[in-house]
Amino acid sequence: MLFSPEPKTRRQDLYDFDRELSALVTALRAERLTLVTGLRRTGKTSLLRVALGEAGVTHLYVDVRLSLYAGYRDIAEVFARSLEDLLRREPSLADRLREALRGLKGLEVSLGPPGVRVTFRGRGKLSLPDLFTRLNDLGEPIVVAVDEAQGLRKAIGLTGCSPTPMTACPT
């Protein structure tokens, strides 16, 4: 449906994004870092979701629309749900992914049914840098697409800054 407010996932539902879609697909296949920027509500999420499908790359789609006082638990849950989605979409990758993530503190991967559980307390908390290192060691490129990444700035515990209603963290 062309003019619905929900993000699009099919090329035929995008309107007038041919040039941007082509450039993003090329970048997803070849570049180490790609940013999609623009004004609010202009189709960035739709462009990203369609490009991920068109590029044919293994990807982790992470939607970081978080609460006002997002913390470690919110971030960990978002990444866990994204990993579960990857396990469902790429069943041929499941055994290698589980093996690559085995022993990673704060994360437990099960295959039947596909599931990811995270630890929220103590020294066994999931470390995102460790997660990215393990994904990198998988042996094949995995695109990590973070939608609404600016939401990570609000995450308590990631930056060492705790925003309050009257103050904001430096960007």
Q: What characteristic shape results from the CA principal axes?
A: globular
Major beta sheet, specifics?
2 strands, parallel
Binned, the helix content reads 25-40%
Query: How many DSSP E strands?
Result: 4
CATH H-level superfamily title:
P-loop containing nucleotide triphosphate hydrolases
> In percent terms, what proportion of residues is strand?
5-15%
CATH topology: Rossmann fold
Structural class: alpha+beta
List the strand order in the largest sheet. 1-4
**What is the total number of structural domains?**
1
Give me the Rg, rounded. Answer: 17 Å
If helices are DSSP runs of H or I spanning 4 or more residues, what is the number of helices?
A: 5
Which architecture would the CATH scheme give at its second level?
A: 3-Layer(aba) Sandwich
Structure description:
This protein has 171 residues and is α+β, with helices and mostly antiparallel strands. The protein has a single domain, classed as 3-Layer(aba) Sandwich (Rossmann fold). Helices cover 35% and strands 12% of the residues. It contains five helices and four strands. The chain has helices spanning 18-30, 44-55, 72-89, 94-101, 128-136, and strands at 59-63, 107-111, 114-118, 143-147. A two-stranded parallel sheet has the order 1-4. A two-stranded antiparallel ribbon has the order 2-3. Helix 1 (18-30) crosses helix 2. The mean pLDDT is 84.
